[in-house]
## 1
Amino acid sequence: MLSDEKLEFAKALKLPTFAVDGMTLIRRLTLVVRDGVIEQVFYPVFPPDASAGVLAWLAAQKNA
């Protein structure tokens, strides 16, 4: 989990955002980071009530 209240991280990585009720929010995504390096990005996450597929990806990495 990462807090990015000022959207500095989101802007630096050009993450997808949307606006609602005067707020800018980051679209739902998952970043897998190891030793400070982004290894995998799960985006878009669809349908919204579904898992991002992270567990299946991690299991595949373990078996590779």
## 2
Amino acid sequence: MERYVAAKAAREVLDHGDQVALAARIASQHPEVGAAERARFHVVLLDEYQDTSHAQLVLLRSLFGGGHPVTAVGDPCQSIYGWRGASAGNLRRFTVDFPEVARVRPFGATAPSGPAPVLLLSTSFRNSEQVLDAAAVISEDLRYEVPDLPRLVSAPDRAERGTVACALLDTVTDEADWVAAQVAGLLALEPGCAPDGQPWPDRRQAGVRPSDIAVLCRKRSQFVPLRRAIEARGIPVEVVGLGGLLAVPEVADVVATLRVLYDAGASDALARLLTGPRWRIGPRDLVALGRRARALARGEGDRPRAPEHDPPGPGSAGHDPAEPDLADALAEAVTDLTAETGSLVEALDDLGDPRAYSPAGYARMHALAAELRRLRAHVGRPLADLAAEAERVLGLDIEVAARPGADPVAARADLDAFTDVADAFTGEGAEPTLGAFLAYLTAAQQEEFGLETGRVGESDSVKLLTVHAAKGLQWPAVFVPGLAVGERSQVFPAKPRTSTRWTDNARLIPFGLRGDAGDLPVLRGLDAASLEQFADACAARDLAEERRLMYVAATRAAFWLGCSGYWWGEGASCRLGPSPFLLQVRSSGVARVLQWAPEPAPDAENPLLATVEEADWPATPAGRHYEAVREAAALVEAAREPASDALAELSAGDQDLVAAWTRDADLLLAERAQRRGEGAIPVPLPARLSVSSLVSLARDPAELARQVRRPMPRPPARQARKGTAFHRWLEQRYGQQRLIDDSDLFEPGTDEPAGGGQPGGGQPGEDLGELRAQFERSEWADRWPQAVEVPFETLVGDRLVRGRIDAVFADSPEGGYDVVDWKTGRPPASEAERHAVSVQLAAYRLAWAALAGVPLARVRAAFYYVAEDQTVRPADLLDEAALTALIDQIPSDPVP
């Protein structure tokens, strides 16, 4: 923990807990903050209050306690974030923490008059009656904590409706097949019917669609068999949430490619690509590649090697079952993939002697190496663009679209979701590099709760997500699989990966020192009986947390709830069985038991382990449509160039038609080449421009186009910090609070904040004190501005230009106004740069003339370079027509 705190301090970053704690400390120690917030918000509504932590309680109570009108809404049975500090007891104690107050006449003072009143909201307008009955049975043990908590009842249009089904299957794969069969049955219902077989309450005529169904899992490891079983029935599935998304095959291929591009040691990621259904490299070729990697690691890269085996036939790229040494090659290949024996990535880039490989294997690996080299040229692009380029190069966009019977939009939903993740990381990350993004993906894959809830897409597909990610969402039909538990393993309820007892986990604060100690188990002594009692209390608390999660899962269903479990899981010899939650649903009196497998015999073995699964290696493209896509492409290519004699046999009209097809195809191919970055791409100016963009347009239109097309963040610089500090001092001097927007931070092509100077303009010996002293000696020290930090938006031509003027003075001897921009760097050295930066003053001058309603001739403009004590008034400032012409200019060459 100390290292974590030190690392955050060194990087000047905060996590969510730090932010809440700092906010609570500020609010509790500075009453004026609460007074200001109460003046802004006369009535406060706190939603989902059961998910607040103790720090949030302190914050809210400091801001709005003491009689301010506050209402909290929440359900203690849905408090599922205890693992991150949430305390359901906050809702129970709300009436005491925010007591009702009465005004004392005649002075209007207030005084507490007792606990706040409580109103019960017991009608659910989303759930049917039978679903709520099942949920009530699940949450029955939770109601002892809040005795007055009512059971939810359905709205009149959903009373006496709903279906609850349960099943216990033999194996986890049987459960996945059962879920898929039930999904298919729901989709086959008559049009106009909701999942419970009755008409929709809103009388819609459509039947149940895939997007009306969600499968909510406790763990992401459940996704793979469920997704496979549902897709096997031709039903589209979308995985929600980054953690589960990384298990989707096409997304995993993109991530593996990104890892290979970034890390030469990512042999495991390269092995996924090599052995996949696209390249299908066999064990002997992998052995040859591993030997090449070891040779390069020993510095023997230039030494020619004779082939160590007869090259296999080209049809299998290294796989010939008839050869006797296949088992040895397979064992050696597995060893190469699991041991640190050199970099397979480097070996792929330098394959060495072609005779060491099969002809087909060498050709495929050579093609993959060339493909990766082309992709490395795109590593500097924004992450979303890089991910999309990898997707295109891998052919995944075509592959998912080629799935038989699949809606193209739904088929690529997972790829689109991953691109959204990359785009969001680029916008939020402090260091949006490929390495940082890959580290983020690794953390998301390892963390069971995930790093975010994810966004449910709008495609017409079954949604597959965790229960945590489903909080606040609703579907007509919901499945909750994996309700299985055994003596040594359990799925739902899940067992915490680390102990939740502070006596066993050094990462936890002792419960007695926490603000929510009243809601936590108490350790009454260190004797064996006290420790056992404390352990039992913590276990009961863990089970209650899982029970709340199950209650949330059940109440996501509007009309149909399916719960299931199984006896045997994959790759485990220990037996499971129905969890307490599944047994409660079965005994609720409303559930239909669709299937219930008998308990296996005590000496029974896991049937999933009784047989050894077999598969071809190299992988056949079954289920992955590479070969079909290649054949289709070959047919299209052949059709694009018909034989000359065939053309001669066509009529004149048909020949014109073929020529038109050829022209259209050429145009489409040219457009595709532009989108791939293979040619010059014209970049239109945005409809809204900052003043900094105008300066860039005058300085270098091509550079501005590159910034518009591929915006890149700029690291803070020393000169930028000095300029910002000087502007802040001026604001304090003039008594004006600065409002900073993103366009104020940097001018394009400089390391300065707007108004801060030019590159290299910093004076190492000039600190803030010297700049302040110089300003106080300047001609501007005795003049007082009429306005400072003036934001504006003005129309120049057909573009809206926005900016912020540093200061406007109205005491010019010549009359009119002086618009001034403060600079902390040196004046520009070249005439071209002086012309470019003068555009900033021209825009300020035009904007102030419009704001003040005066002719442009009455507004002057100047830069004041503080360190040089120099006021510069450009004599040839552009007027509105010239600025419009600047915006309307088009670069002579499109920008790549």
## 3
Amino acid sequence: MSTALGQLRGALIEAWLALRTRRRRALIAATGVALSAAMLSCAVVITDGLGGGFPRAVKAADLGDLIVRFKQQRAAQVVRRIAALPDLSGYALRTEVTQATFAYRGHSTTKGVAEVVGSGRRQGYAIVAGHNLRGTGHEVVIEQGLATAWHIKLGDIIYVRYLAPERVVGVAEGPDDVGYPLAAPRIYLSRAAIDAQLGRDPDPEVNFAEIWLRNPRYLNEVLVQARDESFGLQDLQFATRSGVRVLIHEAAGIVIDLLVALSVIALATAAVMLASSSKAEVQRRLRAIGIRRAVGASRTHVTLTQAVEAMIVTIPAATLGTFVGWIATYGPGNRLLALLNEPGPGSALALPLLASWLASVAIPVAGAAWPAWTAGGRAVISLLRGADVKRRRASSRSWPRRMRGHSNGGGGLTGLGARLVAARPARLVATSTMLACSTAFILLMIALAATLSSLETDPQELGKHYELTASLPPSYAPQVARIPGVQAAEPRYELHAADGYALGEIVDVIAYPRDHTLFEAPPLASGQRLRGDGQAEVGVGLANALGLAPGSPLLLALPSGRELRLRVSGTVSSLDEEGLVAYVPAAALLAADPSAPSQIAVLLKPGANQTAVSAALTRLGAAPQAAAGAVERGAPLVAVLKTILRAVAIVDGLVCIYALTQACALTVQERRRTVAVLRACGAGAGAVRRLLLGAVLALVAPAALIGVLLELLLLGPALSQLAASYATLQLRASALEILATVLGLALAGLMTIWWVARSAVRESVVTGLAS
């Protein structure tokens, strides 16, 4: 034991003294470890946070295995149907009231959802603050997203139409749907408390059932039985845990996969760089290792010294990098999870982060120890000679010719630099792969961020051309059109209808008296624009839900109680209402529902003053509003995603710069004698920079080409496909974005050339020749 401690103490002293003599190289190695650890930490936080959010939410809320929505029926009838199901463990009934009105301190909505829950242990939502409903008094539990958006605290009073002021006693997460503002705001009320206010109903009407099974493996069989036992229940909609998860996490899946893949590549590249650096450092210290071996130092001691030296550098660097990656993504990740009605990982993240930290430490240490172990096994006389990296005889005879080429213009130096990098194929492949994947990922994130910004701020991104709406009767349209700066004005009718196929889909119906494409022209996905009073254009989301195609009949049940029968002329790409939209002729809509609500859509002339037009509309008695972006309610989600993308892009970019710089620095370090010979023959800093230019081009040129093709042909189309059920989004990087990214790579290469060349010429020629 004492011998082992003595060896460790001796190795620690030697390692510390060695690091003091090469602080600069130790700092470079520490930077690489910190960056790779930060990248890996980002991947762990996002992967464990988003990937594990839904299972955590299901466990916390005890979400049912089967969720059923239907047209309101008496609870007794629903209970009889549920009781006939096999493998039943329990159930909970609710009354889900949509289009509910509630308000709080300047905030209000008429599109809220009020869940009236009964008594029972299982409710299908989790309390994250305060306590659950107790069935007495005027109490309400609100959704976490609503509490955050409206700044509601426990004990505050919220006003619900038809009820007395309700006191907020709890904040909940319901994993069966995303949170506000991505979805309608949701509150939970106690049936006992409602009965106390409005009178008791011994057999209330319900329209929502949550069902738990003894063995979820039999879910498919229970679904078949549920459909058979549904006689008397109308507008049935079934949802399972897996279905809810796919709906909520579809878009997050590829982002997680890309981030994990990129982080693994970053870690592997950093490992190759650090291992190569350690190998080059061992080559430089062969004579010192030989002297230690000659005076009796064992191979194990030499290896232990190198490993301890690496640990001294790696442990604090990996700790810092892991902390930076965690702090950069943990907060935004939790905000994203809150929008999805899912809890954050909390302390459960400690173990994955510890594993990532251990990987960030173990890989560089192993990469440093192995070259020392290999060198320690060589003959002492060979070590004392200080044998350098192997060189071909032909190469040594060709140096004079290459140096003459330098004197004739220097073109040969650029090629020589490329050949020096190519002499290490494993390092070349690792670095180029890292740069290519990082380039593709950065291009994808730039395209995604640009698309999100456009959808959030630009109503015309998906075909919404009008800039303002005015709450005026249709007869005011000619008067509005005469306002200076207005190009066109036309009544815009909009209401929510139900599909007439007993599937319960709510459809956003939009109508214009004439050609709607002047005001709204979402991209046509198939078919043609509507012509005549008997046709309709439907969103891709609605077409997928109902199995519609051009030529299919469309049946809509209007709030007036009448039906609107049309034929689908084409499908359009729209993100509004998740693509559940239908553009219909105004004449057909008004014939079925003369009281359809309307406003006037206002299209401005190019360069018109929107403020002046709004003031003129106000003088007419209107309440003008600016047209909203396609995902206006998703603005918080867009902001969080931008924050995450920005953090990952910064770390990714720094890893790129490090990999490029380290590859060039290692090439110069391994070929110190070559550089010294060039300088001894009269070459200056410019010649070294031309040599490094060839090395950088050999690394960056193929990486840039592969990265651009990877984004254009694979990553961009793959991510676009995820939104295909709602809209056609082009996430391929534009020419300007590609140019900016390539210029960024070029700038990183120029910085690398300047920095490495500056370091190389600082070393004396004699020292380089003696290496």
